[in-house]
Amino acid sequence: QVQLVESGGGLVQAGGSLRLSCVASGSIFIINVMGWYRQAPGKQREFVASITRGGNAIYADSVKGRFTISRDNAKNTAYLQMNSLKPEDTAVYYCNSGPRATMAWGPGTQVTVSS
Q1: Are 9 and 19 in contact (CB under 8 A)?
Q2: Less packed terminus of the chain by CB within 10 Å, N or C?
Q3: Using one digit for the tens of pLDDT, what is the confidence trace for 45-75?
């Protein structure tokens, strides 16, 4: 059973950047589509981005052009490069399969963007 652990969150000013990592206990190669999700205070968890084994990516309109999802199957790791961060990006970020989550949720990593 593959377990996922997110890291890389932190506090940044608007316009700044962060790079999130999602490390799997097993091979992510068996997961055809990896995805990132986020949940802001008082809101439902929402889809952010996903990427297939072959590198085809899909993004939510709210992050398109600012975020980049990638994966390194050899390192069993998925990444989310976040640029031009906005206060509305503040949330706990999670990784899972995508574009619909099917696995157990990991602990997530907090991203806070100050204005």
Answers
A1: no
A2: N
A3: 999 999 999 999 999 999 999 999 999 988 9
Distance from chain centroid for Cα 41? 17
Q: Calculate the average pLDDT of the chain.
A: 94
d(CA 104, CA 114): 30
DSSP label of 53: T
In DSSP terms, which residues pair with 111 in a beta bridge?
10, 91
> Which pair of structure tokens corresponds to residue 90?
């503040």
Per-residue model confidence as pLDDT tens digits over 10-23? 999 999 999 999 99
Distance CA 28, CA 33 (A): 9
Q: What is the DSSP string of 6-45?
A: EE--EEEETT--EEEEEEESS-STT-SEEEEEEE-TTS--
pLDDT of 93 strictly over 80? yes
